[in-house]
């Protein structure tokens, strides 16, 4: 590598020391652009070899030399005449014999390149102001129009040298004063003419004055302007309007480009779409990104002109299409106005997932409520069975019985054989034997010869629940005590009350709201109901489970005591008659055999006596919870303190 670099450097130095004819360089031939000038003006020749198309000029060192093709001599700086500045060769004061080709040779350590530039020096035409070579520009009659000086390359080069310059305009041979008449100088190098008419059909010369290499010089260009009644003004891009558009991924998309060209006649204007600075040429719908054919129509009011429209279509938006500017550009002699839009992915619709979540939660809540409503008893019983440690052990509360069973006695009105069987046999068989509850049943557990009032009060107080069994005729006997009869029977009542003061107090404690005294067919059940309702409604120290043994009609319910009706409305009743009706309906579906064997003994509980039947589940649901969590009185006392 060091030997190659040494050899390259030697050839590079040899090229610098050799003449034009000794080198074999890559020849880029004569530039197409000629430089036209006149004697006395400044001329600028530019080499285009410093380009990435030729070599990597940013990393490879290079040197440029200029040569006169006629003599083969290298061009060097000559005070007041020639100035060599890298890729630019300046003639500060042209002469006729400067006409000819000038060659620029660019040398690198490895190779060299050459290019020729043609300089044409012409004599001015006698009795004519301006240069013999003229640029042609049109002016539109009746509007304000602009002429552009063709010396922008000179101005840009001088700006790169930080050299100030000035422009002077002439019409024919007369200088144009900025701001006088219809003329206004516009930076850089433009002349605005207001209300153009036919007299502006003339030659205009722009002269650039500057100082370079210590020499004051100038260069001029002449414009042959003609006035036309056909005009085309700067196109106006109406859509897109430099906007931001949001679209969802995967959707199709279309956007139109609408351009209005103020004109009379046929304008030479073309519109096109650019994506990432690349033109979209395709009009084939099979392509993912394509445009429609250009459409145009004329407009006379409110302003004459031509509308141009072209639609950009993207059949399916992909990730690479977002965060990109899409530009619609109008190409015309008046300029290249453009409008753009930026395509961004659409913000996620939070309402949709939120709505879905809320909808799902609502549906789940409704389903949960329905399930709980339908299976509440089963859920609670399962929870009690699965987590008994969460419930207090009732054996430590000082109560003797889980429930006190109150039902019409053998002498009571409305007693039937079925009621007695249910109270004395069915209830104990299921609740005591199958479920483990401890019941107090008056007809079974009463101490013979004991006082009824004391027995009822004591055993109800020792029970956690009261099971009140009743039928349609249990509470149908009622005696109304009016104001007139109360006086006649006062002595009798006093005598009765003196015989049994305790019974009188209990009777008087359960007065109905209409002023009547409620009297029950059976003395024991009367005492049980009064004591139970007193504890339920007033003391709130006892819970009553109403067990309805037969269907009650509204007329029969109206004869019930107010307290019983209130309790039945508040908490409902467990209906044995519904269980019996279901049993009768499903008998043919649940029978396992035609006859019971083994001496008439059932091998298992029938559906009506099974603790898992609906009726007994409701009874168990209302009965005390048989928990395992212990409560220590000493800790409770400490917490209270």
Poorly predicted tracts of residues = 1-18, 478-521, 588-605, 635-641
Report the β-strand fraction as a percent range. Answer: 25-35%
- State the helical fraction: 25-40%
| Mean pLDDT level | 81
Overall 3D geometry? rod-shaped
Termini gap: 99 Å
Total helical segments: 16
Largest beta-sheet characterization: 6 strands, antiparallel
What is the β-strand count? 32
Structural class: alpha+beta
Rg (CA only):
58 Å
Throw out a few tags for this protein.
641 residues; alpha+beta; five-stranded mixed beta sheet; 16 helices; 32 strands; 28% helix; rod-shaped; disordered C terminus
Task: Describe this protein's structure.
By secondary structure, this protein is an alpha+beta fold. About 30% of the residues lie in helices and about 30% in strands. Strands 17, 18, 20, 23, 24 and 25 form a six-stranded antiparallel sheet that branches. Strands 1, 2, 4, 7 and 8 form a five-stranded mixed sheet that branches. Residues about 1-20, about 480-520, about 590-605 and about 635-640 have low confidence and may be disordered.
């Amino acid at each position: 590598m060091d030997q190659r670099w040494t050899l390259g450097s030697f050839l590079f130095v040899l090229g610098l020391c050799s003449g034009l004819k000794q080198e074999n360089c890559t020849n880029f031939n004569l530039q197409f652009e000629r430089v036209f000038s006149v004697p006395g003006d400044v001329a600028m020749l530019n080499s285009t070899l410093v380009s990435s198309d030729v070599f990597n000029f940013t990393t490879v060192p290079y040197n440029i030399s200029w040569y006169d093709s006629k003599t083969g001599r290298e061009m060097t700086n000559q005070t007041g005449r020639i100035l060599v500045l890298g890729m630019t060769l300046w003639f500060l004061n042209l002469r006729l014999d400067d006409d000819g080709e000038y060659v620029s040779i660019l040398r690198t350590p490895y190779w060299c390149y050459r290019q020729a530039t043609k300089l044409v020096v012409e004599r001015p035409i006698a009795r004519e102001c301006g240069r013999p070579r003229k640029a042609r520009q049109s002016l539109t009659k009746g509007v304000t129009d602009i002429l552009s000086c063709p010396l922008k390359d000179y101005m840009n080069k001088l700006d790169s040298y930080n050299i100030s310059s000035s422009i002077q305009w002439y019409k024919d041979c007369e200088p144009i004063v900025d701001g006088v008449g219809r003329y206004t100088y516009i930076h850089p190098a433009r002349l605005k003419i207001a209300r153009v008419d036919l007299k502006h059909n003339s030659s205009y010369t722009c002269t650039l004055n500057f100082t370079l290499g210590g020499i004051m010089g100038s260069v001029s260009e002449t414009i042959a302007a003609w006035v036309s009644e056909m005009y085309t003004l700067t196109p106006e891009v109406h859509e897109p309007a430099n906007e931001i558009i949001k679209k969802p991924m995967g959707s199709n998309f279309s956007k139109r480009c609408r351009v209005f060209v103020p004109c009379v006649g046929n304008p030479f204007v073309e519109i096109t779409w650019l994506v990432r600075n690349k033109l979209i040429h395709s009009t084939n719908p099979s392509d993912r990104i394509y445009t429609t054919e250009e459409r145009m129509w004329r407009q006379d009011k409110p302003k004459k002109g031509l509308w141009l429209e072209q639609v950009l279509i993207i059949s399916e938006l992909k990730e690479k299409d977002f965060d990109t500017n899409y530009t619609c550009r109008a190409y015309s002699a008046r300029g290249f106005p453009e409008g753009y839009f930026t395509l961004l992915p659409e913000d996620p619709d939070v309402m949709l997932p939120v709505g879905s979540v809320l909808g799902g939660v609502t549906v789940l809540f409704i389903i949960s409520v329905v399930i709980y409503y339908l299976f509440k008893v089963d859920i609670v019983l399962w929870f009690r069975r699965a987590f008994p440690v969460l419930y207090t052990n009732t054996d430590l509360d000082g109560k003797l019985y889980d429930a006190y069973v109150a039902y019409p006695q053998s002498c009571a009105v409305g007693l039937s054989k079925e009621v007695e069987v249910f109270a004395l046999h069915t209830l104990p068989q299921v609740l005591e034997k199958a479920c483990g509850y401890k019941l107090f049943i008056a007809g079974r557990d009463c101490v013979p010869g004991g006082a009824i009032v004391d027995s009822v009060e004591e055993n109800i107080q020792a029970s956690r629940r009261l099971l009140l069994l009743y039928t349609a005729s249990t509470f149908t006997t009622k005696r109304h005590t009016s104001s007139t009869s109360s006086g006649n029977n006062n002595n009798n009542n006093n005598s009765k009350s003196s015989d049994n003061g305790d019974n009188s107090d209990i009777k008087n404690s359960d007065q109905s709201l209409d002023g009547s005294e409620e009297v029950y067919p059976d003395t024991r059940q009367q005492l049980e109901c009064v004591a139970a309702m007193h504890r339920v409604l007033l003391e709130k120290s006892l819970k009553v489970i109403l067990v309805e043994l037969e269907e009650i009609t509204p007329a029969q319910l109206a004869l019930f005591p107010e307290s019983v009706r209130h309790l039945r409305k508040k908490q409902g009743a467990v209906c044995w008659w519904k269980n019996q009706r279901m049993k009768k309906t499903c008998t043919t579906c649940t029978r396992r055999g035609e006859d019971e064997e083994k001496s008439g003994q059932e091998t298992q509980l029938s559906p009506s006596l099974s603790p898992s039947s609906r009726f007994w589940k409701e009874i168990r649901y209302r009965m005390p919870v048989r928990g395992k969590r212990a409560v220590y009185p000493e800790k409770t006392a400490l917490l209270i303190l």
